[in-house]
Design brief:
Elements (H helix, E strand, L loop, with lengths): L10 E3 L5 E3 H11 L2 H19 L3 H11 L5 H7 L4 H19 L4
Antiparallel strand pairs: 1-2
Length: 106
């Protein structure tokens, strides 16, 4: 599977023949070397963690299964012995609570 690229973008080809933009790698390296950005990420992660702790255990589980594990709502419903619609409603409530808790950060 080849990535499409602009003709003027410098690329590197790895052992499998896949092309990678050198500009993307430079930007990633610089972002990782930025201490201020790293601090902001850690602070944001801590605030999100605290906000998740304010959810009910069921809301937290549904949110994490959907967003961190990438499961479909139907699968989550089956895991929790409930319907897809109930899992969807639980996810909606969790998301609304998180938005309310994290809104002051905007």
């Amino acid at each position: 599977k080849k990535k499409t690229r602009r003709e003027d973008s410098p690329v590197m080809v790895d052992a499998s023949g896949e092309e990678h933009s050198l500009l993307d790698q430079v930007a990633d390296d610089r972002a990782g070397a930025n201490p201020e950005r790293n601090l902001m990420r850690r602070e944001l992660g801590g605030k999100i963690g605290k906000a998740l702790q304010q959810l009910t255990p069921r809301e937290r589980m549904v949110f994490e299964l959907k967003h961190y594990q990438g499961l479909k709502l139907r699968t989550i419903g089956e895991m929790l012995n409930t319907t897809e619609e109930t899992a969807k409603n639980t996810l909606f409530r969790a998301t609304q609570k998180l938005r309310g808790t994290l809104a002051p950060m905007r």
